[in-house]
Amino acid sequence: MDKLNENQNTGIDLSKLFPEESEIPNEYNFTETIEQKEYLINGKIESWDTSFQDVYSPVCIKSNEGLNPKRLGKYPLLTEKESLEALDAAVKCYDHGRGVWPTMTVKDRITCMELFVSRIKVKRSEVVKILMWEIGKNLEDSEKEFDRTIEYINDTIEEVKKLDRESSRFQIHQGIIAQIRRGPLGVVLCMGPFNYPLNETFCTLIPALIMGNTVIIKPPKKGVLLYRPLLAAFRDCFPNGVVNVVYGEGAITSGTLMKSGKIDVLAFIGSSAVANELKKLHPYPHRLRSVLGLESKNPAIILPDADLELTVKECLLGSLSFNGQRCTALKMIFVHSKIKDEFIKLFSAAVDQIKYGMPWEKGILNTPLPDILKVQYMEELVNDAVSKGAKVINKNGAHLQSTFFFPTIVFPVNDSMRIYHEEQFGPVIPILEYDNIETPINYMVNSPYGQQASIFGTNSQTIAKLIDPLINQVCRININSQCQRSPDNYPFCGRKNSAEGTLSVFDALRVFSIRTLVAAKKNELNEKILSSIIHDRQSNFLRTDYIF
Ligand code: G3H
């Protein structure tokens, strides 16, 4: 590491970072491994006894043999056969839109969902502990992820009631009476990411379900075990075949499902490379709707009049929350040359002072990364930048120990470096100095990504002038605030390689459904028929009642 960080000898000592087993507080320890055999198909929890994937924590344990990632358990590696069984169950349950679930009243679907929330709420501590150990997310953020998910389900229930109320009226245009509602699309393959394995999966799963689709969940490679405590709730709260959960290699499980041509919606949060592979496997791409959350390289643009205290605070959170492993993280900082020295001084001091450690420790910002490969990737990016003229700016930067990589600021960055182009998705913070505002603007115009940006400054006119050219490059501009997805009521989307479709409590209901209508020429016969259907409540679709 010497060549990466000239301050190597003055930096921190990480040799005592990882605990011995006996040093882990009892209440937080993962005392019993999860040897998972279960998977869920057609309302039945099946048992698997063939091949398994071992699961290791980002947290290493110190022993006489050195530092080793703690083993947390295993999960089934299902084959094409079980994937097709899950597909069969979802297809049969949807039954061309004639199944129990897609034709059920919205009110009854809400009842199932309410039961589901009450069942999973009691699993909070179990799920939070698994999240913390399996992906290394700190305790507070793991709790936040769980609570935010429950809130998302409750908000979705309220939003679906609102949508239903708004659709409960007839329209008359040009002599045609119509009632317009939103109907389901079919079978949804739901795949979330490792960094928000619960929340981001549920942000597509819940709206997909409540709109009447049937679903196959394929949990991410990491962040898998937390689904096990939820399997029984999926089984008990929804009709058989509505929710199916398969585990295993993506190429085998998801690949088989996509090749079948029977997936109607691909809900995937991950990389555009994998999304492309999956989409290409579908034999009828025109019939596939995709809802994708992909990579990004969100920039911070720091103007010469920025409030530095606030800017440093937001850039720190923006680039380092959950080790920078958020699609919304700030992944490139442009700072004006006039305040570059002051910003770098304050920012690197703040980065060096972050609290780091084990996920259960109070107030921790940075924790170990998922595996050694991720640490190696961070090193590669820093090494590459240093070999092309950048320096590691902060004293503790580029220090590492096993799966832990201390947040590292590299400066000055230019377009010859990998970090300028690649989504680091980790604790490396590239800084680029600019004189002309066209520099960050051009970066965004030429970027393959288009999710969000943050502007830091105090002059409203300057900021206004920047908003106009930038708002068509990304989907959200944050003023003096880090980039983020929340609150979940706001649209979350992206341009170019960053996303397809829009997610929010409101938008997701629309993305997982299609507008459908019943129409009739306005005449005596049709008016009589429509009135009878409404009056005698003969249809689940054509009705005017309200869900309060
Ligand atoms: O990884 C992407 C997440 O959706 C980010 O969500 O900005 O609320 O942390 P967040």
How large, in whole angstroms, is the Cα Rg?
Answer: 25 Å
DSSP strand content: 15-25%
Q: Based on CA inertia axes, which overall geometry fits?
A: globular
The total count of strands amounts to 25
Span between N and C termini? 62 Å
CATH topology of the largest domain: Aldehyde Dehydrogenase, Chain A, domain 1
Unreliable stretches, pLDDT < 50, 5 or more residues? none
Please indicate the count of domains. 2
Let me know the largest β-sheet.
7 strands, mixed
CATH architecture classification name of the largest domain: 3-Layer(aba) Sandwich
| CATH class (first level) name of the largest domain | Alpha Beta
Q: Percent of residues in helical segments?
A: 25-40%
Quaternary structure type: single chain
Q: Give the helix tally.
A: 17
Bound compounds = glyceraldehyde-3-phosphate
